[in-house]
Amino acid sequence: MRSRRGLVAALGAVCLAVLCACSGGGPDLPVKHLEGAASPPDGTSDPARSSALERFYGQKVDWSDCEDGFLCASVVVPVDWAQPGGATLKMAVNRLPATGDSIGSLVVNPGGPGVSGLAFARSAPRYFGAQVREHYDIVGFDPRGVGASSGVKCLTDAAQDASAAEDSTPDTATELAAAVADAKSFGRVCEARTGALLGHVDTISVAKDLDVLRAVLGEDRLSFQGISYGTFIGAWYAELFPWRVGRMVLDGAVDPALSAEQYLEGQASGFSKVLDAYLKDCLDSSDCPLSGTVTSAVAQLGRLVDSVDANPLPTRSGRKLTQSLMTTGIVGSLYAVQSWPTLTEALTKAMEGDGSGLLAQADRYLERESNGHYSGDVVAANPAIFCLDSAEARTPEQIAVDARAVAAKYPPLGGSIAWSGLTCAEWPLKAVVPHRELHADGAPPILVVGTTQDPATPYAWAVSLATQLKSGRLLTWQGTVHTAYRQGSPCVDTAIETYLLSGDLPATGTRCR
């Protein structure tokens, strides 16, 4: 959830911004190569053997040095997988070779949707444990419509400033009409500036691109670590190509069976739980600007959020902190415990009439630089992808009713999160990815990781996905942060790395602290 623009939670952005309390060296883990040839089940055609797709699966790419030990390349894929003879696009890929004896490639994606996988792979030396780096080539990619892979284009920087500051909780019929008109205009601008690609940035198409990447890398099976919304990519890959799955970690899982309404309410619930945890921590400190119980602190914070709806706060930059920017700043600060002290300081200033701290947090989350330039593509790619992945069948009036209910249930952030469904309701293109359970029947074991107090991908989603997948195994971390790997739990890190290196799963029911 970024603003009423409809940018639902950029679920992986925190992984780039906060490579958190990474644990140090662990035990020496066993290493085993993947075994067994990959072949489709009877009656299933393998696209890798299709003559119509030979030019994609059989392509040879030129890897070139691109600094810091990385190699970069472009992989050609069809814009429309239903018409492979038509237009193509170049998917940008980078690779960091293993430091020792490689057992294969580990393709990674940090989610978003819309976060750059190239940028995330650049963090591999800090993010992955030493043994994972020793035995895997780490491969990143920008999914279609993201960054260097023909990124979606929507608003100019100035227009994005205005959009991010817009009213995130329309209260009257006039405000709702203005919000609907703005959502329609936004979709038309994206369509005009991006062109035909806008209708083909869905996750099923990305999963098919991934299988081409697997072949280009010379791998019989795809080993993959998906983080946050990247788990949605991994789950769909496993559904479409279960015989091609290698070792797959899905950390901070998205539940593919959820409707758009359920998805947004789930996030409202997740952020509400973590907000309560933050407030409890804040109230235990001497510098907390709030007082009393957690319930009373929620009410105090709610009054602050409500007050800036009509009276935005001034900031040192001269820009105003609107309600939308305030809630974005708060939400962005809840992804990681490490951000809580900064949030406390920002709230203290806001309650004194200075919105500068929360504006800075919102800008960081929205990838807005001090010169006013939005450095990332998430603000454009996020709704373009999500609206194709998740059908929004509700009318604006129905969204208004639901948003009021969510706002009452999960104050003071729930309303802004629930209202973000409006962009997809007015998106110019229909969703193409169905809401349904994914089973990946025939896939080898898949490790699903859930954090009990994950704000953006609630733990219940990980439980659901692990249950849906025929070979899913759930690993639980009793933590309060978005995603689990390399967030400070040696138990989690060892379990995930053991699986990646040897294929050995943690015991059923494993819970890490």
TrEMBL record:
PROSITE patterns reported for this sequence: PROKAR_LIPOPROTEIN (PS51257)
Keyword Flavoprotein carried by entry: no
Ranges for domain Peptidase S33 tripeptidyl aminopeptidase-like C-terminal: 414-512
Entries under Gene3D superfamilies matching the protein: alpha/beta hydrolase (3.40.50.1820)
InterPro entries: AB_hydrolase_fold, Pept_S33_TAP-like_C, Serine_prot/Carboxylest_S33
Signal peptide annotation: 1-20
Keyword terms, alphabetized: Hydrolase, Signal
ATP-binding keyword on record: no
Any one GO molecular function term: hydrolase activity
Family statement drawn from the similarity comment of this UniProt entry: Belongs to the peptidase S33 family.
Name listed for the protein in its UniProt record: Alpha/beta hydrolase
Annotated organism of origin: Spongisporangium articulatum
